[in-house]
């Protein structure tokens, strides 16, 4: 059956070769935020993959995720390196009236939670995990009590209200028995700090280390290279990576508006083809090209960070504390494990977290979650792009997932959560019922502070 489907796709590709060669738009502007996982955009440009598709692309850094989203929405940018949760939220009508969608996941993993080094030094050695092992947020309990006795609150940073970082930080805190706070949009409270034991606020990624150094933040969850920069400067210690928190999950995606995708279907497929090749190059031969990629994105017009710092996460030699490294081969994943395919399960998980913390104000049935996922994650352009790459001999059938499979989840790299909770994307409400901390139904939120 899989062979038949790919044969039909390949036949369509070859029969419509003339049409496929005609992009509706060839001069494109793509946006990104300065993080290592913008690498596929840089690689596709520097390696000539965009040009191979007849596309003339400029890649432009944006100040923060809100600016990036606004510029995609109003058409100043054709597409962008976007947060998976950001695209899911916009499609569900949260924080934006624009309908965004994606047909390509740019990477898995790539984030971490970092704590102020001075606070970490106060944690008893007996409570600390080995370097490279996930550290429970429960180690923050003593510091939280100390801050409270002084009439203060601990402050942690995240990058955007609908970002993976926000949900990962909240998940980690709640798993350690710390309430991260609710959103209450129907009450006009979008701070996310209702009933919080620890306050979470938004800070642009490149500003995280400096904000910690100034004493404004005691911790943060962010992508690279900003955790490694904080470690190098002696400011912080990495306590957990998002791979350790939840395993394989869509991190960044190629975000476009639904209107743009409808108006530019051939251009869209060509963008996906170029970026698929870039992802493949980044993971090829067991990350053999990662040092070259780190040098590439160290340029000022890309990430503009020290190549040594960029290389740590990109090559998998991750520094958790000054002078203490651990091999994290899958800290950044750009292609393997079918990383690039838009699996519905990832979108559903983000929606459950939006409900858990109150951004989705009312309970929804299970069917709603799947409908929303199908609206935002659009696999058809991906499948067509893959078929064309196979026909052209640039990638192989075995490089791609079985498009005939009905599974909602990524095969071969299942999500594994730090608290041991099981996630079945076909039963999102049952999943939410497992948590002692977080909203579960139309009833009042469960505000327990015991470890969940």
Q: What attributes characterize this protein structure?
A:
452 residues, alpha/beta, D-Maltodextrin-Binding Protein, domain 2, 2 domains, 5-stranded mixed β-sheet, 20 helices, disordered N terminus
Question: Can you describe this structure?
Answer:
The longest helix is centred in the middle third of the chain and has 23 residues, at 265-287. The protein is built from 20 helices and 18 strands. It has 2 domains: 2-109 and 249-399, Periplasmic binding protein-like II (D-Maltodextrin-Binding Protein, domain 2, 3-Layer(aba) Sandwich); 111-247, D-Maltodextrin-Binding Protein, domain 2 (3-Layer(aba) Sandwich), CATH 3.40.190.10. It is an alpha/beta fold. A 5-stranded mixed beta sheet has the order 2-1-3-13-4, with helices on both faces. Helix 14 crosses helix 19 (379-391) and helix 17 (344-356) crosses helix 18 (366-376). The radius of gyration is 21 Å and the shape is globular. Mean pLDDT is 91; it is low at 1-5, 14-19 and 443-452. 52% of the residues are buried. Helices cover 39% and strands 18% of the residues. Its main location: membrane. Keywords: Cell inner membrane, Cell membrane, Membrane, Signal, Transport. It is found in: Endomembrane system. It comes from Rheinheimera soli. Pfam families: NMT1_2.
Topology:
Blueprint: H1 2-15, H2 17-20, E1 27-32, H3 39-46, H4 49-52, E2 56-61, H5 65-73, E3 79-83, H6 84-91, E4 100-105, E5 108-109, E6 111-116, H7 117-120, H8 141-149, E7 155-158, H9 164-175, E8 182-184, E9 189-194, E10 199-202, H10 208-213, E11 219-223, H11 226-232, E12 236-241, H12 242-246, E13 252-257, H13 258-263, H14 265-287, H15 290-297, H16 307-315, E14 317-321, E15 324-327, E16 332-333, H17 344-356, H18 366-376, H19 379-391, H20 428-432, E17 437-438, E18 446-447
Parallel strand pairs: 1-2, 1-3, 7-10, 7-11
Antiparallel strand pairs: 3-13, 4-13, 5-16, 6-11, 6-12, 8-9, 14-15, 17-18
Helix pairs in contact: 1-19, 3-14, 3-15, 6-17, 14-19, 15-16, 17-18
């Amino acid at each position: 059956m899989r062979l038949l489907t790919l044969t039909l796709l390949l036949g369509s590709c070859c029969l419509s070769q003339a049409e496929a060669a005609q992009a509706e738009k060839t001069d494109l502007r793509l946006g990104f935020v300065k993080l290592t996982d913008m690498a596929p955009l840089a690689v596709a440009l520097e390696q000539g993959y965009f040009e191979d598709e007849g596309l003339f692309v400029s890649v432009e850094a944006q100040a923060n995720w809100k600016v990036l989203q606004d510029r995609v929405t109003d058409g100043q940018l054709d597409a962008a390196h976007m947060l998976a949760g950001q695209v899911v939220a916009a499609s569900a009508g949260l924080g934006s009236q624009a309908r965004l969608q994606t047909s390509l996941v740019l990477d898995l993993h790539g984030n971490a939670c970092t704590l102020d080094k001075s606070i970490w030094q106060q944690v008893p050695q007996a409570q600390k995990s080995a370097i490279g092992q996930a550290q429970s947020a429960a180690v923050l309990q003593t510091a939280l009590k100390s801050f409270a006795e002084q009439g203060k609150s601990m402050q942690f940073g995240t990058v955007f209200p609908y970002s993976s970082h926000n949900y990962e930080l909240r998940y980690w805190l709640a798993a350690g028995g710390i309430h991260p706070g609710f959103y209450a949009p129907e009450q006009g409270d979008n701070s996310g700090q209702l009933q919080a034991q620890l306050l979470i606020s938004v800070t642009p990624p490149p500003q995280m280390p400096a904000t910690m150094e100034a004493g404004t933040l005691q911790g943060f969850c962010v992508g690279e290279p900003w955790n490694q920069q904080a470690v190098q400067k002696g400011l912080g210690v990495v306590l957990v990576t998002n791979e350790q928190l939840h395993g394989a999950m869509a991190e960044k995606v190629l975000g476009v508006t639904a209107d743009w995708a409808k108006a530019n279907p051939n251009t869209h497929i060509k963008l996906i083809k170029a970026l698929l090749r870039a992802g493949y190059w980044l993971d090829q031969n067991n990350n053999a090209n990662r040092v070259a990629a780190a040098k590439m994105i160290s340029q000022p017009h890309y990430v503009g960070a020290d190549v040594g710092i960029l290389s740590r996460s990109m090559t998998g030699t991750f520094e958790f504390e000054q002078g203490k490294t651990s091999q994290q081969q899958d800290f950044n994943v750009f292609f393997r494990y079918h990383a690039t395919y838009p699996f519905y399960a990832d979108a559903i998980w983000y929606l459950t977290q939006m409900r858990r913390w109150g951004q989705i104000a009312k309970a929804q049935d299970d069917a709603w979650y799947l409908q929303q996922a199908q609206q935002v994650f659009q696999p058809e352009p991906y499948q067509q792009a893959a078929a064309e790459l196979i026909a052209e001999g640039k990638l192989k059938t075995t490089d791609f997932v079985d498009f005939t499979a009905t599974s909602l989840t990524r095969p071969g790299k299942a999500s594994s959560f730090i608290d041991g909770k099981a996630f079945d994307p076909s039963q999102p409400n049952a999943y939410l019922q497992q948590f002692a901390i977080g909203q579960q139904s139309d009833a009042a939120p469960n505000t327990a502070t015991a470890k969940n």
